[in-house]
Amino acid sequence: MQFLNQQITVFICGMILHYNLLINLNSVIKNIVHQFLQAYQIICINYSIRNEFINLAKESLDLYISSLYIPTTKLIIREELINLKSQIVASPEYLIKHITTHKISDLEQHNCITHQHAQYPNIWRFGDGELIEIHSNLLHNTLSNIVKAAKSGLGLALVPKLYIQQESSNQELCVVLPELISYEFKIYIYYNASNHRKNVMSMFLDFLKKRVTGLIEIKR
Predict the structure, then answer these.
(1) Which residues, at least 6 apart from 100, have a Cβ–Cβ distance to it below 8 Å?
(2) Which residues touch 116 (CB under 8 Å, ≥6 apart)?
(3) Predicted confidence (pLDDT) per residue in 156-210, tens digit
(4) Of 57, 78, 58, 59, which is closest to residue 68 (Cα–Cα)?
(5) Do residues 13 and 2 lie in contact, with contact meaning Cβ atoms separated by under 8 Å?
(6) CA atoms of 201 and 166, how far apart (whole Å)
(7) If DSSP states are collapsed to H, E and C, what string results for 95-144?
(8) If you compute the radius of gyration of the chain from its CA atoms, what whole number of angstroms results?
(9) Tens digits of per-residue pLDDT, 112-171?
């Protein structure tokens, strides 16, 4: 963070920005920031949520939280904050019209909707080490649009369970190959390399990592 002084008796201020993630996760991170400020009231945080892609090199940010995998330089550190449990889903209408999927290789016969900012948009990886190269005629830059496309019957989508709780309960989306679990949907934190060893930054990152992991595991 851009700290005015490292002494704990001095008012410390920093800026945190996060890319609009999942509705549930936005709330989780916001609450963690509030808890941190309750515990450390001498710290000031300018906290914002945005929908647009940002240029890390040009923004005056202390900490950026995003699901986007952004190439970094020596000046920016990228860490994984959490991996979210994801599954393959499709609309009931799509499943009626297309070939039944019994095994991972059957995915090659389907159109898959992917995220354009994924590290490997054309590859789906799963927790047991299996992976497959998928075929896609549609890439979106937000999860909400990927889910909308899947609900419209345009193909299969690999999305975090946390994001589609309502669609699952309403049976708007059905899980395909439920034995395949992916943890490839990741939330990253980015911060300036010069802040890596600063006490307040380290304290906040430890606070954030412990609480967000515990909360997301409960929600699973």
Answers:
(1) 106
(2) 139, 140, 141
(3) 999 988 788 888 889 999 999 999 999 878 888 888 777 655 677 788 888 888 8
(4) 78
(5) yes
(6) 36
(7) HHHCCCCCCHHHHHHCEEEEECCCCCCCEEECCCCCEEECEEEEEECCHH
(8) 19
(9) 999 877 778 889 999 878 899 999 898 887 788 899 999 999 999 999 887 888 888 899
Q: What is the DSSP letter of 87?
A: E
20: helix, coil or strand?
A: coil
Domains of the chain from N-terminus onward: 12-82+186-219 (3.40.190.10), 83-184 (3.40.190.10)
Structure tokens at 143: 């999860």
pTM above 0.85, yes or no: no
Q: Report the C-alpha gap between 161 and 200 in whole angstroms.
A: 33
